[in-house]
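@channel anyone free to eyeball this complex?
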Amino acid sequence: MTYTLIVEQLLNGLQFGLMLFLIAAGLTLVFGIMDIMNLAHGSLYMAGAYVAAETMQRTGSFAAAVLVAALATGAVGALLELVLIRRLAVRDHLAQVLGTFAVILIANDLVKMIWGPAPVMLNLPAALSGPVRLLPDLMYPAYRLLIIALGLAVAAGLYLFVTRTRAGVLVRAGASNRQMATLMGVRVPLLFLGVFSLGAALAALAGALLGPVTAVQVGMGEEILILVLVCIVIGGIGSIRGAFAGALLVGMVDTAGRAFLPALLRGFFPPDVASSVGPTLAAISIYVLMAGILVFRPSGLFPARG
Amino acid sequence: MDRRSLYWTLLLLLALVAFPLVAPLFELDFYVSFVRRILIYALAATSLNLVLGYGGMVALGHAAFIGAGAYAVGMLGMGGVTSGLVAWPLAMLLAGALALVTGAISLRTRGVYFIMITLAFAQMVYYVFISLRQYGGEDGLNLAGYSMLPGLDLADDRSFYYLVLALFVLFSWLFNRLVASRFGTALQGIRENAGRMEALGYPVYRIKLVAFTLSGAAAGLAGALLANHNLFVSPSLMHWTQSANLLIMVLVGGIGLRYGGVAGAAVMLTLEEILRLWTEYWHLPLGLLLLAVVFGAPRGLAGLLGPLFGGRREGAEPPGAPMAAAHPADPAPSSTRNAP
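replying in thread with the prediction:
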């Protein structure tokens, strides 16, 4: 095992973790501020990927595709909040699970009606399709570097927004004590709308950016949703800092587990055992991580509420 | 059980017994196996209703117990153990043991964290079975044949139907006895106010864990039946959307109502079947219907039809059932509770 392989896998883990964070940030805020269990967040991620693929095909510009995906899905999110989420906010978690699961069913069929059941291609922009020499003997795909840079930029922007702006203060106030924020005169409905729409746009951004790396297909939202839920539960629901830590942890553990566990086990067990146990352990590693963290810290690593 | 609800139950039972005899007359043979599937899912949904509706534990990982039961039958079958008398109890034992272990850890957490940790354990089980390549891995496992039972040939659609019906009736009876027992009352007390029950000296954690384990074992039996029904088991039985489906059956049917799980399974599977005939895009109308249930019938369909069946439904006091908790001012259901 050489250091280049380790560096490469660390970068992969960072890239995956940052994308998870983009989706998790919106979800954890919606959870924390609106107290809504939103299973449909994955559908917004899917919508972003599909809109990006469509825009890419029409305009040929990847930048336009990403931008349009984020804006359009942000608008869809705002509409969803006005029509449905607002009414679910006054209900309990079970009603929210049912209502937002209904949105998943509807969204999946709408996407199938518009784009068909087959996966859609979202091509890499030509300028970014090649590798870059990072270290003398380490080549890394340029596109993945771009994702890492964009992910870090958005995370930094979000951090500045939450900690340095007036709107960010309201968001934090809503997350730590919604009722108190209402009583202090925060216009909560507007805050809800803004937060939900922002979360939708961020999820779509992740969908558009991950589109060329993974498959753009119906059902992609449900797969990522579970991973993202794991991230925000590990971090502590409602905490952006927690979502960031959780997402990076999940991204790193998942990537490292897949890359190194089988090889590691081969050092201790016979090859046939290692080759069958390794992938299993890698696949369940993040769930073990989450269960372990919840046993010792039942409200996650960075609980938003005291 | 009061007289009116007894009549309705007997009528329904009669219809279920008569169905396979009448079906061939109307060329509805296919639907014998369809109703059998509904009964199996009704069993699974009822088991979830015990923890969800009566225990107030929102578990999003019940598909793992169904899957464990199904795989127990499949794997034992591969190993040459085809007797249902051995395999089915073992399936329940395996699912129950799984529920005991995961429940013991999960029940330390509350609220959304409980939802998530049950989901996490179900995902672990899901991935473990995906990686078991000797048992088919992701593609699943075909059963060589039905489980062998003395005096019964499950290959005969009708015999299998009656066996499922008998098991379903037996378990519904046990379920009704359980929720009306001292244990069941304590469980509902914990749902209402765990702190107070703790102060009264009830072993809250242990009661919840026992309910969770029993529920898992019953789901395991449903899994064993499902494996025979499909003659096929695969990890997709344990995908998290299956757990969500089961949760939705209970919610649609009526959470914490005796026949909520049954009503939900029947309505959801029938709707799915009808919509599938009608359009390729059957998820969309199903989603719209779910939204209609969320906003139109917050206590589920059994709650909506409750007055029709009359009778006391001890799990359904308005301020108690979690679904109804958001409407403490809704007086309608309580007025029907003491109807003759």
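from a first look: The two ends of chain A are 44 Å apart (CA to CA).
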